[in-house]
Amino acid sequence: EVALGYRRDLEDVAFLASAPKFVLPANYRAADVPDEFDPLKWFPALSQGQIGSCAGWGSTTVCSGVAAIQTGGRSQTLFAPFFTYVMGQRKVGIHGDQGCTISGVVQSLMEDGLALDQECPYPDQYDPQIVREAAIKAARGRLIRQHLRAKGGYDDCWEPLSAGVGGLIIGIPW
Predict the structure, then answer these.
(1) What are phi and psi of 116, to 5 degrees?
(2) How does pLDDT run across 103-151, given as a tens digit for each residue?
(3) Burial of 157 from C-beta contacts in 10 A (0-12 / 13-18 / 19+)
(4) Which are the contacts of 46, defined by CB distance < 8 A and separation ≥ 6?
(5) Is the pLDDT of residue 95 over 80?
(6) pTM (2 decimals)?
(7) Which of 95, 145, 156, 174 is a Cys-bridge partner for 152, taking CB atoms 3.0 to 4.6 Å apart?
(8) Taking the C-alpha atoms of 108, 99, 9 and 111 in order, what is their torsion angle to the nearest 10 degrees?
């Protein structure tokens, strides 16, 4: 039986729970929330096809979105979901197209960095042979320094989003 994308059964809950709670900066002011928000203005809707890489897509989309928010939409950087998926799998010992964990991709984001989409294009079929240059470049540009815990409900999720300093990665088993 092939596992679908999110591998809750292999999730490193202790790693995720060890993160500090988000603390609002002293100069915090909630961002003006528009009535509508369309991320498709910045990023096209793409398909992961038949590859179980939802954790890679979710995490790189969050990072691209945060970059866009922090630059007022001037950054339209697309990060490589397949790179993050495979590197996240390696962190938790998954081999083959068997999905991944949020803890795996978060550890990869912090330790391996983010590859640009053009440096590691998304394949039509699962192929874990990551281009060496993409891994070297990704390691030079580690943008994610820490992960934070959003455990208490709506406010814990809303505060980093409205401050423009973070995003959410949510795993939903199906």
Answers:
(1) -75, 150
(2) 999 899 888 989 998 889 999 889 888 777 788 888 876 666 667 666 6
(3) middle
(4) 57, 122
(5) yes
(6) 0.80
(7) 156
(8) 0
